[in-house]
């Protein structure tokens, strides 16, 4: 699995850390502290941009009401549970982009369309709970290894 990505001139991701571009640590104590302290609002805007989504779309997928999103924009940080959902979205986005070998548009299309391996649900509809995110990540892992069923 590709874990560090950088955009080249064709829009494909090729080199620098995905997580550095997002603005949060990928794992470990740094991530734990960032989640406790509150993920900065800039992470949200970067994720929306990297995923090619409107801010309202991303808010819907990570279950953050528009009024809450506006309050977080003013405060500059998300609460712990909101930040956790953003992190889970970032995990799925990174894994999908790696699955499509850095092709951000291919990953975006896969995330937005019904997937047979998820019972016909769209991956972006499965970001509200850790169990759903785990199912999406497991499917991506199986697809990377050529395991269809």
Automatic annotation (TrEMBL):
Q: Which residues form the Antitoxin Xre-like helix-turn-helix domain?
A: 31-90
Q: Any idea where the Antitoxin Xre/MbcA/ParS-like toxin-binding domain is? A: 95-146
Q: Tell me, what's a Pfam family for it?
A: Xre-like-HTH
**InterPro entries found in the cross-reference section:** Antitox_Xre, Xre-like_HTH, Xre/MbcA/ParS-like_toxin-bd
- Spell out the molecular function terms from Gene Ontology: DNA binding
Its protein name is Antitoxin
Source organism: Halotalea alkalilenta
